[in-house]
Amino acid sequence: MIVRLTSLIGLLALWIIAAWIGNDPEVLPMPGALLGPFRAEVASGALPYHLAMTLIRVAWAFVLAMSVGLALGLVMGLCPRVDKWLDPWLVVFLNLPALVLIVLCYLWIGLNETAAIVAVTLNKIPNVTTIIREGARALDPDLRAMGQVYRMSRRSYLRHVILPQLAPFIAAAARSGVAVIWKIVLVAEFLGRSSGIGFQIHLYFQLFDVAHVLVYSLSFIAVMLAVEWLLLQPWERRARRWRRA
Questions:
Q1: Whose CA is closest to 214, among 51, 49, 29?
Q2: What's the whole-model pTM score?
Q3: What string of DSSP letters covers the chain?
Q4: Burial code of 226-243, b = ≥16 C-beta within 10 A, e = fewer?
Q5: What are the CA-CA distances from residue 109 to residues 106, 112, 119 (Å)?
Q6: Which domains, from first to last, does the chain contain?
Q7: Could you tell me if 130 and 75 are in contact, meaning their C-beta atoms sit under 8 angstroms apart?
Q8: Contact between 180 and 157 (Cβ < 8 Å)
Q9: 48-60, pLDDT tens digit by residue?
Q10: Counting beta carbons within 10 angstroms of the beta carbon of residue 217, is it exposed (0 to 12), middle (13 to 18) or buried (19 or more)?
Q11: pLDDT tens digit string along 102-127?
């Protein structure tokens, strides 16, 4: 934790130096200059509201992408025939730009919550599927043979043999998923929503208000860093612990 705090302090010092050299608050204000806009946005309720809207979209897209990606990756990793059929689809969606999917979903579904969440989910499913597929391919054949010897039911085999081995891959997919999803959510909000951090960044971008853009951006980054450090990293360490035992 000390190393992380020191690193963040170094980043803050770099920001101060850059702002001092530039000497133009309209381009890059000092960190202290953001306190006033931050307090005003919190007092008005705008920052908590838009932050909550973005977090809700991130949560929905994360749960859907992880659920579908886990199922697809497991099937593709365990069934080579299915993998041959679906692999071209996976490659296509992996290389399809997020912006294209967002625009198409807005055109096909409309400028609504469903389109935004579907677009973000479709962008993340291929990444989750790829990670889980590699994990399924790396399953220990000896443990599989053990399950057959003891005639474990499919449910017990999935719960006690497959999922523990996939836990590190699921944790990795979750960490990378959160990191990617919230960025795509901001783009979706920037393009076609009337609430959320991305919408507010779009608004203040049109007003050339760098201070408010930084306030909303840094507020959301702070929340996602807390999620990363307090939830995802401890979960990943716990998921990998059995391999070191």
A1: 29
A2: 0.83
A3: -HHHHHHHHHHHHHHHHHHHHH--TTTS--GGGGHHHHHHHHHHTHHHHHHHHHHHHHHHHHHHHHHHHHHHHHHHHH-HHHHHHHHHHHHHHHHS-HHHHHHHHHHHH-SSHHHHHHHHHHHHHHHHHHHHHHHHHT--HHHHHHHHHTT--HHHHIIIIIHHHHHHHHHHHHHHHHHHHHHHHHHHHHHH-SSSHHHHHHHHHHTT-HHHHHHHHHHHHHHHHHHIIIIIHHHHHHHHHHHH-
A4: ebeeeebeeebeebeeee
A5: 5, 8, 10
A6: 43-244 (1.10.3720.10)
A7: no
A8: no
A9: 999 999 999 999 9
A10: middle
A11: 999 999 998 899 999 999 999 999 99
